[in-house]
Amino acid sequence: MTQQQYIINRKTNIVELGKTLGNISEACRKLGVSRQHYYDIKGTIAEEGLEGLIAKSKCKPRFANRVNHDIEKRILEYSLEFPIAGQVTVSNELKKEGFIVSSGGVRGVWIRHDITTKNRRLKRLEEHYKKSNCILTDSQVSALVPRQISFSLCS
After folding, report:
1. What is the pLDDT of residues 109-139, one digit of tens each?
2. What is the C-alpha end-to-end distance of the chain, expressed in Å?
């Protein structure tokens, strides 16, 4: 017997004992519940049936605060254009374009897409360049040049 089945059986037993004894106060006293609880159970069964006795979550699910999809898309585009820009810079530049987002919002997007560090954003730029074979801007090239030199020194 699962826990939910046990809860349903216990609640139905309370109502059945009240009917059998004909005295609700006595039934509640024997089972150790309040009369208010008895009437709550009885009302739930009348309104929703036995399915209503299943334990329900009383709070709404909390979803993480997320930025608008358009803003997220623009943050990712800007991070490709200027991979060495930090959170505050990205936030300020997007505000100039009319996208209102905080530096924490930028960081949240970066965390979801696993591009929190400059090296990861540069790696993402390299992968994007290999896939689309697009033309890199001067700022992108200057950001990638020291990275290639450091990798050649390591090997």
Report:
1. 999 999 999 999 999 988 888 888 778 888 8
2. 62
Burial class (CB in 10 A: 0-12, 13-18, 19+), 115: buried
Distance (Å, whole) CA 85 – CA 2: 54
* N residues, the chain: 155
The better pLDDT of the pair 76, 53 is held by 76
Name the helix (H) or strand (E) containing 112.
helix 103-112
Contacts of 71 (CB under 8 A, 6+ apart): 94, 99, 100, 101, 105
| Helices 69-81, 103-112: crossing angle, 10 deg rounding | 80
Q: Any idea what DSSP says for residue 59? A: S
Quickly list DSSP for 35-73.
Answer: HHHHHHHHHHHHHH-GGGGS----SPPPPPP---HHHHH
Instruction: Using the structure block, give the residue that is written with the tokens 């993402």.
Output: 124
Amino acid identity for residue 30 in this structure: K
